[in-house]
Automatic annotation (TrEMBL), chains A, B:
It comes from Roseovarius litoreus. Keywords: DNA-binding, Transcription, Transcription regulation. SMART domains: FCD, HTH_GNTR. Residues 15-82 form the HTH gntR-type domain. This is Transcriptional regulator, GntR family. Pfam families: FCD (PF07729), GntR (PF00392).
Length: 230, 230
DNA sequence: GTCAACAATTTTGTATACAAGCCGGATCAT
DNA sequence: ATGATCCGGCTTGTATACAAAATTGTTGAC
């Protein structure tokens, strides 16, 4: 089933115009080209992508179901960025999902995956010392994805990955906090240790806090931005 | 935002044909009219619903994104019932999500919600004694939904509800285990007690086990069915 | 008899055409 | 002058038409 899904995705990239458009639209919303609340005009977008309204509507509906766009019947499609409250909620769920992954992974993780985790962590550390935030970000993601996968639950891995992707643009912003990368590294070490010991409760706890703190930092960031605006 | 969503849903029920069809198709897949792996012919379904292919395709895509249908480019749409493995995975995630709801609810639940829980539980008990499995089922669902809601996290509530709904047709099957309803009732009591005490860890644990056991019972059921078939 | 290649048919994906509802401006009444 | 109402343009939702690809059946060769 996994393989089949990959094949679908692969084919769809090549064959169905609607899918390509969905991906591109997603990018345009992520990078802020379309601001929150903006109406997405079907005909304008259709001619922009050089297609008719039919595949474009399909792409919009896909985004609507993933929550990035709100489709109001007979009114149109509007960009829907999560507000501060919803964002905090999503971070909280992210923390719970990762905690669940960690709990299960503690019981199921393979030795080779533990090695991969340590390798990713080492590269992470190197990136921190090199002040290479892009590289840090990439390795950090690899670290977490290994844990999702080692939960041994494909469905959980899928759901967690989905939310991870959705939170990506927001997570990035809080990385710049002073000392955050170093602290994060220490937390990674603790997580690996817990997994190595097969200590489910500790893996769950450390992971939950590790992710939850991102949400809190983000909260602080939002508050400071809001204060600055007043 | 909640209200806005409700309005959308309400309007869509009236105005957009595609949405109604999506709901009806969902029903047809749930109740087994369309068996697993069956190809869903667009033209046949279109004329069955008395619409053109356009809204029908939109409905299919919606089901595809919710995972009930698999759309293979240039090949068609096929019913995709979760297999035993994926089902177990989904039950496991359900257990983790409900555990998360319980953990958060233990810290946030209101007194009136605690009262609602006890009320639902009482009706549950009455249903058990009356051997009224339908009523038991309804009140059981109410019980769990209250906990989702009392997590105080709208996003978590939404995601948990989504999976709950998806697992509904499978959960039902394992209710008939001898003594399961009584055991389930005892577990409910323990859950309420944990929530009442504001004991997050206990609420998390009891809820996880309460849901996980459903998956296990289901597993046993599947195994026995498989054995009977051989 | 079996396998392969090709053609015909079916089916999906996309474009265009049509219908129906919403938005804004103009007109009219108070 | 202000408010409501109605009409026209514009946008969405749906139907139909067309193009491309896949499946199936047939034919031919080995």
């Amino acid at each position: 089933m996994h393989r089949r899904h990959l094949v679908i995705h692969f084919l769809s990239m090549e064959t169905r115009r609607a899918d390509q458009i969905a991906v591109q639209l997603e990018e345009l919303i992520f990078d802020g080209t379309f601001v929150d609340g903006q109406r997405l005009d079907e005909v304008r977008l259709a001619e922009h992508f050089g297609v008719s309204r039919t595949p474009l509507r399909e792409a919009l509906q896909r985004l609507a179901l993933s929550g990035m766009v709100e489709m109001i019947p007979r009114r149109g499609a509007f960009v829907q960025q999560p507000g501060p409250v919803q964002l905090m909620e999503m971070f909280e769920v992210m923390a719970e999902l990762e905690a669940a992954c960690g709990r299960l992974a503690a019981m199921r993780i393979t030795d080779s995956a533990l090695g991969d985790l340590r390798a990713a962590n080492a590269k992470c550390l190197a990136a921190v010392e090199a002040r290479d935030s892009d590289s840090y970000y990439a390795e950090n993601e690899r670290f977490h994805r290994i844990i999702y996968q080692q939960s041994g639950n494909g469905f959980l891995e899928q759901e967690t990955s989905k939310l991870h992707k959705r939170l990506k643009p927001f997570r990035r912003k809080q990385l710049r906090f002073r000392g955050r990368m170093a602290q994060s590294m220490a937390e990674h070490e603790a997580i690996v240790a817990a997994l190595e010991d097969g200590d489910a409760a500790r893996a769950e706890d450390t992971l939950r806090k590790h992710v939850a703190v991102q949400g809190e930092k983000f909260h602080i960031l939002m508050a400071s931005l809001k204060r600055a605006a007043e």
